[in-house]
Amino acid sequence: VLLVDNGSNDGTLATVAERFPEVECIANPRNLGFAAGCNVGLRHALAQGADCVFIANNDTIVAPDLLDQVVAAAAPADVGMVAPLIYYEADPRRIWSAGAGRNPLTLEMSGNLRGRLDMDNWPDVIEREYLVGCGLLLKRELLERVGLFDPRFFMYYEDMDLCLRAQAAGLRLLVAPRARMWHRVAVSSGGVDAPAERYWMARASVQFFRKHVHGLRWLIVAPYRAGSSVKTVIRLVSRGRREAAQAYLRGLWDGWHASGQEAAGNEQ
Question: Whole-model pTM?
Answer without folding.
Answer: 0.91
